[in-house]
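Input protein
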Amino acid sequence: MARRRVANPLALAVLSCLDERPMHPYEISTTLRTRGKEQSIKLNYGSLYSVVDALQRHGLIEAQETTREGRRPERTTYTITAAGRAEMQEWLSDLLATPTREYTGLEAGLSLMAALPPDDVATLLTKRSQTLRMQLGALEKAEEIGSEVGLPELLVVEGHYRHALLRAEIDFVTDLAERIKNGNLGGVNVWRRMHELRSGGMTFEQIMADPVGHLGPEAAIFENPP
């Protein structure tokens, strides 16, 4: 994926709004929030104004006019440039067509979860699953409302994507928690024994000096790691 002059995804949302018509930053923010885009793109006023400044600096948008209404602060209306429109189209095409490696908090936690006792991890994953189910319920309610008012799927397709991700994550963490609890997860016995020994005062180095002796035959892999 190409390196972007302004890499914040909010910049793409700004360009998309200005591709429709000239707007000032407050109007851009209102438009994105009205359409529920803050559910998919992190949006706050500070970052929005920083993004607008960066886009202008790189010639992707330009100021059209500055106006003042009564005692309100001045508002500058921006319009997209030809370079900005080309950037938006290329960037959006890349996002839709090119898979990228994303490092999520859950994946980081899973990769390091052996640092906690297995029963604790199972409890934490169960708690996560419960929270995810509440999020899914709220999303499904929003989808029902959208269907009732006749919103076309095109306008809420990112919500359907979020729905699929939530459902998949709920299934994964629920199954993982259950397999940890019932001992069906490969390596869980070694994991559990490791924490029992550590709680008893042994150091990691002492355990690893004789992993099979301390942890059982399953720990033979630690003697000859791949």
